[in-house]
Every structure is written in C-alpha cells, then in structure tokens.
Amino acid sequence: MDIQAIVSLDRTKCAVQCNSKKRILEIISNIAAQNNPEVEETTVLNALMARERMGSTGIGNGIALPHGRLPGLDRVIAIVVTSDPAIDFDAIDRKPVDIFFTLLVPEEQTEGHLQTLAMVAGKLSDKDTLKAIRRAQTGDDIIAALQS
Questions:
Q1: I need a labelling partner for 12 at 20 to 30 A (CA). Which of 25, 80, 91, 97 fits?
Q2: Are 20 and 97 in contact (CB under 8 A)?
C-alpha cells in the first residue's frame, strides 16, 4: 500500500494545541469522525485508548503511531497531526511527541495492518521527512513531506 492512498488533506492538522495524551487522542478521534461518516468518535477514541493501555505507541524520536481496528470500516484511514508543543506520550525513549500518525484499519485486517504500520514507520524513519513534517504550516505541507 502506498502512503498517498491513506493520507488526505481533511485528516491532516498542524500545530494542534494540547497538553495530554488523552486530549491528542480525542482530537484525532474527532478528526476521524468528522471526515468519515462510517466511524463514530467514541468508537475511535475507545479503540485508540485500548491500544495505548497495552503499551505506548510512542516509537521514539518525537513520533507516535496510534492505531486501532474498527468494526464496519472498509479501508485504512490515516490521520496525521502535529502538536505544538510536543507532549508526554510515554514514548519508548521517554521524549515528548509532536508527530502523531494514526492508522484506523478494518477490524478483520491483521496482516495488512502490520504491513501498513511497517510502511509508515519506515517513511517516518527518514530524517528529511521528519524535518519537513515539523516545519509544516499546513496540511498540504505535511502531505508533500510524506510524498517526497
């Protein structure tokens, strides 16, 4: 799967103001529900919070990959948000997180879900991509950074 197939401007936000893990997940859930009528905000938030209870999705270097499986979803949906300032997200390196790349996948997708996560993690391991995302002023800037 190509990253451009799952990212869209209406699910991309820059410099979101928040100060907690729960609040950023609420913001992400709201963005998902606003732009995808087949998903409910509460369902998304519950799925993301359940995953975080299993262990933080903060992978280090200021990046988190929150993700969850949703019933009734027929395709992978990505929500990309940057925060200002970076927030404590219990990341593996204990550093604050400012890039949140969230994946919502159909409940029955297991193998595809893991492949998509690996593809996103690989893209976010590129230092130039990360710099461009952190410099982004608009959703278009984030999408351009991910496409490079």
A1: 91
A2: no
Report which secondary-structure segment, H or E, holds 120.
Answer: helix 111-123
Please provide the DSSP assignment of 82-109 as one string: EEEEEE----TT---EEEEEEEEEETT-
User: How many CB atoms within 10 Å of residue 84?
Assistant: 12
Q: Is the dihedral of CA 36, 38, 43, 49 positive or negative?
A: negative
- What values do phi and psi take at 66, rounded to 5? -60, 145
Helix (H) or strand (E) holding 66: none
Question: Contact 92/26 with Cβ under 8 angstroms?
Answer: no
CA distances from 144 to 8, 58, 75, 93 (A): 11, 23, 22, 27
CA 26, CA 23: separation in Å to the nearest integer? 5
Query: Model confidence over 112-141: pLDDT tens digits?
Result: 667 888 888 889 999 999 999 999 999 999
Query: Which residue's entry shows tokens 């690996």?
Result: 118
* Structural Rg of the chain based on CA atoms: 14
Residues carrying an active site annotation: 67
CATH 3.40.930.10, domain 3-147, yes or no:
yes
The Cα–Cα gap between 46 and 76 comes to: 17
